[in-house]
Amino acid sequence: MKLATKTPLNHRTASPVALTQLGFGGAPLGNLYRKIKDDEAQATLDAAWDAGIRYFDTAPQYGLGRSEIRFSEALRRFDTDALTLSTKVGRVLEDCAIEDVTPEAFVDVPQKRIVFDFTYEGIMRSYEDSIQRLGSDQIDMLFLHDIDAGTNGQAFEDNNLRQLFSQGGYRALSELRAAGKILAIGAGVNTWQICERLLGEAEFDGFLLAGRYTLLEQDPLDSFLSLCIKRDVGIILGGPYNSGILATGAIEGARYDYAPAPEHILSRVRQLGEVCAAHDTPLIAAALQFPLGHKAVKTVIPGASTPDEVRQNVAIFETPIPQALWSDLKGEGLIRPDAPTPKEPNHAA
């Protein structure tokens, strides 16, 4: 199957990390927006494995540990030599009073709160805690989680970076990589600018970038993606639907960046949808496949909370898209003229 064909995150690490072009985002398994049963979560992971997906991503934040715990059961069933797993560090989970629980968009979560900590001790504790929840030390990649953000909606980027570079956080990641406990390090964030800043400070292998290089947004073409090519840094593209609107279309209540979409976004999505419809192509398929046109982007990882959603993601990924669609989107000024587009449709072998 095509999905089982892997591409390396980069070519300079001693043990290159291999990724299927379609990965699995584990946020929904933390009960994102709705509660799902454990057996449904396991069936969803099995459906991803059966489809040929071999790259899986999770994080302590997702359900305050629930996603990682659910992954632990699947790791006992799967051939771990064949899969690649990433999780995130920098958000430490602590027991707390019920009124201090920080569920964010997750429901039915354990009684925990999130504490941002990018120091040496914070990174090491976050890593060890993830090993305990996963029931395995097979973590291939560690991403600094939302290092450009903090609690209560306030930005603590400078403080977080000070912890990372002056209080040993980066040293902790480097030690884990040098010891072979992990294969690659990077950041999992919602802004490309912080990734570019990190590349100016140290050596990173890849970044998990959520929602910032999509049919709606191509600003990373200005400098960041070319820098990734130059530095041999791979991009894992999360949030290819900009948190929903590129999947649903411009319907009432459509969400963009986790909030109701403003009118200018709704209007642009309507135009994108009209061009896609003229080529008998679902908007969602164009949205999922577009990022892979850039050679810095190694994989896209839409989330799924049911086996049917996994199968839908695979079908969308394999939908043939005519080259004329990309040309027309550029001609209408809906995507940038310098945006590279996929050359071939994805097919199951």
Automatic annotation (TrEMBL):
It comes from the Bacteria. SUPFAM superfamilies: NAD(P)-linked oxidoreductase. Residues 22-329 form the NADP-dependent oxidoreductase domain. GO terms for cellular component: cytosol. Gene3D superfamilies: NADP-dependent oxidoreductase domain. GO terms for molecular function: oxidoreductase activity. This is D-threo-aldose 1-dehydrogenase. It comes from Celeribacter halophilus.
